[in-house]
Specification:
The complex is a heterodimer of chains A (about 210) and B (about 400).
Chain A lengths: L16 H10 L29 E9 L3 H9 L11 E6 L5 E6 L5 E12 L3 E6 L6 E10 L6 E10 L3 H12 L2 H18 L13
Antiparallel strand pairs in A: 1-7, 2-3, 3-4, 4-5, 5-6, 6-7
Chain B lengths: L1 E7 L2 E6 L11 E10 L1 H7 L10 E2 L3 E9 L10 E4 L2 E2 L5 H4 L18 H5 L5 E2 L16 E4 L7 E2 L6 H4 L5 H10 L8 E5 L3 H12 L4 E6 L2 H9 L3 E4 L5 H8 L7 E4 L10 H12 L7 H9 L5 E4 L12 H6 L3 E4 L4 H13 L11 E4 L3 H10 L7 E4 L1
Parallel strand pairs in B: 11-12, 11-14, 12-13, 14-15, 15-16, 17-18
Antiparallel strand pairs in B: 1-2, 1-4, 3-5, 3-9, 3-18, 5-6, 6-10, 7-8
Helix pairs in contact in B: 5-6, 5-12, 8-10
Classes of the chains: A alpha+beta (about 210), B alpha/beta (about 400).
Chain lengths: ~210, ~400
């Protein structure tokens, strides 16, 4: 069993460019020097030189025309996540309030990750982190903010993860590196479809292959 | 079931494919009674729209009888409905503003990846079209699955023929919106490039909206004759210098509004068009914009440019200077069909709008490939083909 870094990565992500660089510094890249730019209004993960060390970071924001609390409640019941996340096969309760996520991996395999909610503010924020000894070192957060003029809620989801080594790591890397931003965008769009229309759009015209 | 499927440039076939089913709660399944070939199907036929896959079922102008409904559909089995070609959820920000062709939720998430780098955003899904617009199986088939059936389809009263109402699916609302986008004021002169079905409905619509004069431009004698039937003056671009003619006919002012009902496959031997035909054949996402350029240069200062014609990629030599210096307004987009269907159905019922004049040929679905071939290459006589599955 290899050791896992459990440093909180995401707590810093939303703050800005300086924070992104800060993470890079925390993650053992001392040989390069960074110019600390003043933060702008964009999310830190979009900095042109964002570097999260060994962590890969995916983040997307989507506007959904539903109240914050309703979206929060649906997401907070983690067993709902598999309804719109393609790679999540199931999320089931673990011990001591943890959750066991079953994630589909390439070649018909699956990976289990145990997570713990580390921060929660009703109607605003859910943050989770993999527990010590989990097969993937990951953390994620989803934030819900009111959009202007009653247009609904900005839902921003950010996930950071550090794939393990070995064969499993190779599979997981393959899974996540398949355009992780595209994957993230698709998941949030499916969430939006489900919340706004009650279903997820598909052009298939049969329930299963004929 | 039998269905017209796309296999490549100028290769469409009637194949046997699996019957559609209810997939989502708001779905309905129709038995198609009439379906038409659209000018934009010819863009697919010519292979100039990206994102087509072999075996795709075409057809976005169709109507039929409801034979199956999902638990959240508001339709009932046995109802006759016309279906808008734009698929719209009815509840997103855009649908609430009646901008149905901008629906956020009908284009499947995994199909939006191609549009976003190209257009910035994915647009609504369309039936029987490119996978950029969802890749939904179309209605040139015996049966079709209709998503969001509680929002799109309009129920047709008994006693109205298919031929009277079929074009509510696309070309009538498209011609109507093209005229609406001209913001016509009393006394206006409107010039319309292209006397295909959309152009001809734009001519009728512009007249109904109070245009004093409508000038229609094409090179097919029969199509120009149809435009004259609806009170248009006409210019044959094979015979006449269009730009100069429009100036002379308007005393040097130019038309108050112009409609490009041609789109990305302009005809003619103007130098810009010849070059762009070559580029399109190379497949570099090049649009052919001769009609649009001519329209922008002809329209009066402060005039309105309405562009129902379909474009998919990039255009060179765009007269941006004329646009800015003359202070033009430009409105375009796929049609917000659902916004117009109820009103236009009433106008058809009251005899205000004639729809049946357009149909030149009726064919069984099995002969659809012949219909495509002739609608494509004999455009003078083949003004509109209706297929009967």
């Amino acid at each position: 069993m290899q050791s896992h870094s459990q440093r909180p990565v995401l707590g810093l992500l939303a703050i800005g460019v300086g924070a992104a660089v800060g993470i890079a510094l925390l993650n053992q890249r001392p040989s390069r020097s960074y110019r600390i730019a003043p933060p702008d209004s964009a999310p830190g993960r979009l900095a042109k030189h964002a570097d999260f060390g060994d962590y890969a970071v995916v983040g997307k924001t989507v506007l959904i025309d539903k109240p914050r609390q309703e979206l929060f409640d649906y997401w907070r019941d983690f067993s709902n996540l598999s309804s719109f996340m393609e790679n999540i096969e199931a999320v089931k309760p673990g011990t001591n309030g943890s959750s066991i996520w079953t994630i589909a991996a390439p070649a018909g395999q699956s990976v289990e990750v145990e997570t713990q909610v580390v921060d929660e503010r009703a109607g605003e924020l859910i943050a989770w982190r993999s527990v010590e000894g989990s097969s993937i070192d990951t953390e994620g957060r989803v934030a819900f903010r009111d959009a202007p003029a009653g247009r609904g809620t900005y839902v921003e989801a950010i996930v950071a993860y550090k794939p393990p080594g070995g064969e499993l790591g190779r599979l997981i890397a393959k899974l996540f590196q398949r355009e992780p931003n595209v994957q993230g965008r698709r998941e949030l769009k499916r969430f939006k479809m489900l919340m706004e229309t009650g279903e997820i759009a598909t052009s298939r015209n049969r329930r299963e292959a004929a | 079931m039998r269905a017209l499927t796309w296999h490549g440039t100028h290769d469409v076939r009637v194949d046997t494919v699996p019957d559609p089913q209810i997939v989502n709660p708001r779905d309905a399944v129709l038995k198609v009674t009439s379906t038409a070939i659209c000018g934009s199907d010819l863009h697919l036929y010519d292979g100039v729209i990206p994102g087509m896959l072999s075996g795709d079922i075409l057809g976005h102008e169709f109507m039929g009888e409801v034979v199956d409904v999902g638990p959240k559909s508001t339709l009932k089995k046995g109802q006759r409905v016309v279906v808008p070609f734009t698929i719209s959820c009815g509840s997103c920000y855009f649908c609430q503003k009646q901008q149905y062709s901008a629906c956020d939720n009908s284009n499947p998430a995994e199909k939006q990846d191609i549009s976003e780098p190209l257009y910035g955003h994915a647009v609504s899904a369309l039936f029987g079209y490119s996978h950029m617009t969802g890749g939904y199986p179309g209605g040139q088939a015996e049966y079709v699955r209709v998503p969001f059936s509680d929002v799109g389809p309009i129920v047709i009263p008994d006693g109205m023929d298919d031929d009277e109402v079929l074009f509510l699916s696309d070309i009538l609302p498209t011609g109507w919106m093209a005229a609406e986008n001209c913001d016509i004021e009393p006394g206006d002169t409107v010039a319309v490039w292209g006397c295909g079905p959309v152009g001809l409905f734009a001519v009728q619509s512009a007249k109904l909206m109070g245009a004093e004069r409508v000038i229609a431009i094409d090179h097919y004698p029969h199509r120009l004759e149809l435009a004259r039937k609806f009170g248009a003056e006409t210019i044959d671009f094979n015979q006449t210098k269009v730009g100069e003619a429009l100036m002379e006919m308007t005393g040097g002012i130019g038309p108050d509004a112009v409609i490009d009902a041609v789109g990305m496959e302009a005809h003619g031997f103007a130098p810009d068009n010849v070059l762009e035909v070559a580029k399109q054949k190379l497949g570099v996402a090049a649009d052919r914009g001769h009609a649009l350029r001519e329209a922008i240069v002809s329209v009066r200062k402060g005039g309105r440019v309405s562009m129902p014609g379909v474009y998919g990629g990039f255009l060179d030599k765009f007269p941006l200077g004329a646009m800015m210096e003359k202070g033009l307004q430009w409105r375009t987009g796929q049609t917000h069909v659902q916004r117009y269907t109820a009103d236009l159905l009433r106008r058809i019922q009251e005899g205000e709008i004639d729809t049946t004049f357009l149909i030149s040929h009726r064919l069984p679905l099995e002969e659809a490939p012949t219909g495509y071939k002739n609608f494509h290459s004999k455009q003078d006589e083949w003004t509109k083909v209706v297929l009967k599955p």
